[in-house]
Amino acid sequence: MSVIKKLAPKIDGYRKETILTPTFMLGEVALECIIPYVMATLIDEMTGVSLTPVLKYGAILVALACFSLFCGMNSAKFAATASAGFAKNLRRDLFYRTLDFSFEDIDKFSSSSLVTRLTNDVTQLQMAFQMLIRMAVRTPLMLIFSVCMAFSINNKMAWIFVGIIPFLGIALYAIFRVAHPIFKRIFKKYDALNNSVQENVAGIRVVKAFVREDYEQKKFNAASEEVRKDFTHAEKILALNNPCMLFSIKVTVLLVCWLGAKIIIGTNATELTTGQLSSLIAYGVQILSSLMMLSMVFIQMTFSAEAGNRVCEVLDHESALKSPEGGLTEVKDGSIEFDHVSFKYRPNSRRTALTDINLKIESGQTIGIIGSTGSSKTTLIQLISRLYDATEGVVRVGGRDVREYDLTALRDQVAVVLQKNILFSGTVKENLRWGNKEASDEELVRVCKLAHADEFVQQMPEKYDTMLSQGGTNVSGGQKQRLCIARALLKKPKILILDDSTSAVDTKTDALIRRALKDEIPATTKLIIAQRVSSIEDSDVIIVLDGGKISEMGTHAELMQHGGIYREIYDTQTSGKEVAANA
Amino acid sequence: MPRPMRVVTDKKIDMKSLKRLMAYVFKKYGKSLIAVVICIIISSVSTVIVNMFMAKLIDGVIVPGLSTGFDAVKAKLVHIIELMILFDVLGIVAAIIYPRIMATVGQGTIKSLRDDMFDNMETLPIRYFDSRTHGEIMSSYTNDVDTIRMLVGQSIPSAVSSIMTVTVIFLTMLRYSFWLTFGIILFIVLMFKVTKKYGGKSARFMKAQQKSIAKEEGFIEEMMEGMKVVKVFTHEDEAKEQFDALNEQLFNDVKTANAAANTLMPVLGNIGNLMYVVIAILGGLIVVLNIPNLSLTGIGALTIGVIISFLSLSRQLSQTIAQISMQVSSIAMALAGSDRVFALIDEQSEADEGYVTLVNAKETIAEGLTECEEFTGKWAWKHFHKADGTTTYVELKGNIEMVDVDFGYEPDKQVLHDVTLYAKPGQKIAFVGATGAGKTTITNLINRFYDIPDGKIRYDGINITKIKKDDLRRSLGMVLQDVNLFTGTIMDNIRYGKLDATDEECINAAKLANAHDFIMGLPNGYETELTGNGSQLSQGQRQLLSIARAAVANPPVMILDEATSSIDTRTEAIVQRGMDNLMEGRTVFVIAHRLSTVRNANAIMVLDHGRIIERGTHDELIAAKGTYYQLYTGAFELE
After folding, report:
1. B121 to chain A: nearest residue by CA?
2. How many Cβ atoms from other residues are within 10 Å of residue A85's Cβ?
3. Calpha distance B423→B446 (Å, rounded)
4. Do residue B120 and residue B202 come from a single domain?
5. pLDDT score, position A582
6. Does the pLDDT of residue B6 top 50, yes or no?
7. 3-state class of B587 per DSSP?
8. Which of A15, A549, B232, B582 is the most exposed place for a label (fewest CB within 10 A)?
9. CB–CB of A224 and B111 under 8 A?
10. How confident is the model at residue A203 (pLDDT cuts 50, 70, 90)?
11. Over chain A, what is the mean pLDDT?
């Protein structure tokens, strides 16, 4: 129910269509019910003597049919608009909502599940919505009208229908109750089956390298057989719908014929006429088939409920990380301070990712950060641009708590080149302009030169207008990283953070980029995370993280002197080089 | 069940695949299908026949009954009701039986289609997978199979039943009156015309809709994947703007497509109403003007009862046609789907003309190397020589030679040129070079993922094209850069290397790969369930498992592709030790990214644009001060 409440406002802007659809549907259904009645009258008037009554009722029928067509077309059109509009709003709200999500929320939902919710689930809800405003209105109306018409024709006979409705209703419901849980269960198995295909497609080289084709085939065939068995079983249960329906119709028709004949003859066609008899049968069929349709609508709705729940989960999710009302829009300088900062990814997790970090970085300094995987290097820098909020303590940028800033203003001044970086489909230019929409072409070239990307971009077929494919797969890893750095430079940030952003760039270019950054943007605070000691050894301060704590901090010379982790890393990485130099 | 379906009807619908699908179903379920058709006929007849009884009821019971009283016609009424019950029972029984058979047939058919697809897919050459996205292949198993299930399980029975009903209705009509039937035929032609017109229109709109769905989905996918970048660049507003434009376009296309699909029913329904009126007037005219009625039973007068049953027949007819029209789009979708399904089933399997096999062997002084049943730890190539009918055995040692090998993924784009190299048993050969230089390509040729057009590759002196592919691959181990793990426990994943390995063997392999420690650190140890390609493990841990998997297979030749991804120095050292253990005592081809690997190699091959430009040991190459020296000192990018 809460799902419906939540989704109902999504008809905004299409309220008129949403109301007009069932209104016209009402007209269509009413006419569909009246038409058999007029037809019955026509039959009764067909005495074989004169053609006048036939023409008269024929004209009425044609008029009614035209009107019914008008109603039907309109309701169909409005339904299409309303449901497409509903889906549009829903998709937009979902998309906007996900844009408000923090990193934490994105991690929680996972991007692939968000994609499913925005695409498949919305499509399914769109179909359900259309069904709701058309069929879910049509069938009960049809049922009610037909019963009314039946009663208006003949009281006694109409009771036959009323008697048969509960029987069919209960039978259909019982079938649904048995089949539904079975279907729910099998869909899980079915997903697992498709998942195994996916694994085989992705891992085909492994399968072939280990000659496991037969093994995989056997595994798949067994799983596929199980899915078949279950589905067949469930479908057989569902297939009982039809005979139940048929049985009800046939019994009704038989009773109507028997009693009808008796009444017509017994009352000398005063209480019931032959024409009325045939329309009674028509109404009977209509009543029962509406009931059948209703059960189908019901089943569809239950299946869609899952999609509704998934969508609502996203809509209901309030991001904990919000931009404050009237937050600061100016970042004074590039100074950074960590004041007793601790951080956990999940409030109830036992592991603290960062423990009691105290750190003061002055504006314009270059900071190197090094440490093993899982030492929370990335976590540390993500707190600066408020991609996550510190669990305890305060992070300050430009002397103010990051939570006091307007989020956009803060992030515009703190540029992060992420470790898992992504280019988007579009030209090189378009990708670079993510950093600054208004940047001139010269500006683009300038930052690319800084990031040493200009040389290879100039060699591309269309230079800065070369199309990049999704994920930037048509440039090499090192080129991608340099474009990402250029993109971040365009922001002219006060703080620039490079999270392992030159791992695929050769050491020489890496050094040139660092040199350029130092010379061209001296006022910008630079934080560099790296695996290679050579990338950070000339930093003003080097921070060594270990298990979420700062274990060493100082200049290269100081840390070498100290002889801790840094020294150890330095030695392992350079031992080869020295031998080479000697050789 | 209710999954959103994708219509992809770019090319004209080819009836060939429908024919083939029917043949496919018929071959397996021929008898069942005959039973189904019989049931459908029974049920159609029983549905239509009610109208005939109505005519009898009115003309034979009610009309005479009005003058003679009820008792006089009671016997006749009972007789009619009895006949009706008989047909009803038959109809219901048929309706119980045939959907059950169809459930078996439908599910059975898609099961065997699925199995056929998968079985054939497993035999396809790597090329096939190179040229398609995973999503493309997957959609045959999900969307396409789904459309076929709808076709076999619903559309076809419903179409057959509709056609039967229409036929029976026609016969019944002809039995009563030619004139009225003729009137009805005119309307039916009109209805089919309308359906066709609407169908075409709606198919066009559908295509437009599919296109904008694909566009919007592509955008959403890209944005969700890159959400973190969007946030870092505060690009939310631009994303919203772009999204809104796409969303509006989609809205418009969905609106038109749905409107076209929705209006067909009211249009057909009201043509049906119009038909009713025209038939009534026509019937009335015939009666009033006393026009002799021509029918299958001869010439006579048209009775009111006949007109009444004609009218209800005409209603039934228009409803049935409406039903057929509703199946049109799902049939079209299924045809496109079965085209793709059969394409996958028909795809040419990897050719294997090899006849040299790998067998267990033992060596005795008297007989030399001979084949034996039991596992001896010694293997031999069993080589049958057609020319003189003899069989020789060559011990499996791991001696690999490549002579003048040329290769290109596409015929006109050569990737490797004149590659010649020798690897003696136990030697380590390292490949070094930039991305696209052909390192991975060389290793893919040794295990025949691809076949070479020119040159020779020999394994223990035997041309590898003569060796049965399965046996060749069994004698080669592989650790790929991109690790693929399968759903199952860690133990299962290690055992993948050797299906009959004991737990102990697997644990030993894990120890050798340096994976044992982290595995024991997991809550369920070796029984930890992996899902989603082992997404709960770190990159380094997944690599360790992949090494363990190769270790348990214990082949004499290993192909290793070192990971470039940045794992930290410590984990790297652990992985490296695992790799080193694995290389011990084997012939190894390694695509090297690590210094230590290169330095320990017996020979380094420096590749550039598909040619070996330098070769030698580390010290030799450093001394030569060539490309290797430059790569090594970091002047070039090494990826």
Report:
1. A201
2. 23
3. 12
4. no
5. 36
6. no
7. strand
8. A15
9. yes
10. confident
11. 81
In this predicted structure, which of A102-116, B189-203, B408-422, B492-506 has the lowest mean pLDDT? A102-116
Asked if the structure places residue B313 within a domain, the reply is: no
Inside any domain, residue B322: no
Q: Kindly identify which residue of chain A lies nearest to residue B215, measuring between CA atoms.
A: A119
Q: What's the mean pLDDT in B518-527?
A: 85
CB contact under 8 A, A531 and B569: yes
**Option in B153, B261, B273 nearest A35 (CB):** B273
Q: Are residues B73 and B187 in the same domain?
A: no
pLDDT digits (tens, 9 = 90+) for B239-270: 888 888 888 988 888 888 888 888 888 888 88
Does residue B214 share a domain with residue B117?
A: no
- Rounded-to-integer distance, Cα B141 and Cα B119, Å: 12
Say which residue, A70 or A44, is predicted with more confidence: A70
Cross-chain Cβ contact B484/A206 below 8 Å = yes
pLDDT of B298 higher than 80: no
Note whether B228 contacts A373, CB cutoff 8 Å. Answer: no
* Residue B87: CA count within 13 A, CB half-sphere: 21
Are B487 and A73 inside 8 Å of each other by CB? Answer: no
Question: Do B463 and B601 fall within a single domain?
Answer: yes
- Residue among B77, B569, B595 whose CB faces A261 most closely: B77
CB contact under 8 A, A103 and B228: yes
Please indicate whether, in this complex, the C-beta atoms of A66 and B114 are within 8 angstroms of each other.
no
Domain of B607, CATH number, reads 3.40.50.300
Please choose, from the candidates B561, B558, B545, the residue with its C-alpha nearest in 3D space to the C-alpha of residue B495: B545
Rounded to a whole number, what is the distance in Å from the CA of A200 to chain B's nearest CA? 8
Residue B633 has pLDDT above 70, yes or no: no
For the stretch B90-136, pLDDT in tens is: 988 988 898 889 889 988 998 999 999 999 988 888 888 877 777 67
Interface A-B, measured as beta-carbon pairs within 8 A, has a size of 422
Measured in whole angstroms, the distance separating CA A433 from the mean position of its chain's CA atoms is 27
Q: Decide which of B348, B367, B387 is a domain's last residue.
A: B348
Task: From chain B, pick out residues whose CB is under 8 angstroms from the CB of A57.
Answer: 280
Q: How many domains in chain B?
A: 4
Q: What is the domain-level CATH number for residue B74?
A: 1.20.1560.10
Domains and CATH numbers, chain A: 1-150+301-320 (1.20.1560.10), 336-420+493-582 (3.40.50.300)
pLDDT tier for residue B491 given thresholds of 50, 70 and 90: very high
B contacts of A508 (beta carbons < 8 Å): 634-635
**Alpha helix (H) ranges present in A46-121?**
52-100, 103-109, 111-116
Q: How far is CA B302 from CA A447, B59, B276, B314, in A?
A: 93, 11, 17, 17
Residue B311 inside a domain? The answer is no
Shared-domain flag, residues B135 and B229: no
Same-domain pairing of B490 and B559: yes
Q: Which helix (H) or strand (E) holds B19?
A: helix B15-56
Contact call for B96 and A243, based on CB within 8 A: yes
From chain A, the residues in CB contact with B637 under 8 A are 476, 478, 504-506, 509
pLDDT of B639 higher than 50: no
Q: Looking at the structure, do residues B132 and B202 belong to the same domain, yes or no?
A: no
Measured between alpha carbons, how far is A301 from A124 in angstroms, rounded to an integer?
Answer: 10
Q: Which of B137, B224, B238 sits opposite A201 (nearest CB)?
A: B137
Q: Average pLDDT over chain B, rounded to whole?
A: 81
Q: Is residue B309 part of a domain?
A: no
Residue A84 in tokens = 């497409």
Cβ distance A470 to B222 less than 8 Å, yes or no, reads: yes
pLDDT at A575 over 70: no
Q: CA A140, A144, A145 angle in degrees (round to 5)?
A: 115
Nearest-CB residue to B88 (from A88, A102, A254): A254
The whole-angstrom separation of Cα A45 and Cα B36 is: 43
Q: Are the C-beta atoms of B385 and B392 separated by less than 8 Å?
A: yes
Q: Give A580→chain B minimum CA distance, Å.
A: 8
Contact B595 A576 (CB under 8 A): yes
| Residues B488, B342 share a domain | no
CB contact under 8 A, A118 and B220: yes
**Per-residue tokens: B458:** 């020999």
Which domain covers residue B288, as residue numbers? 178-301
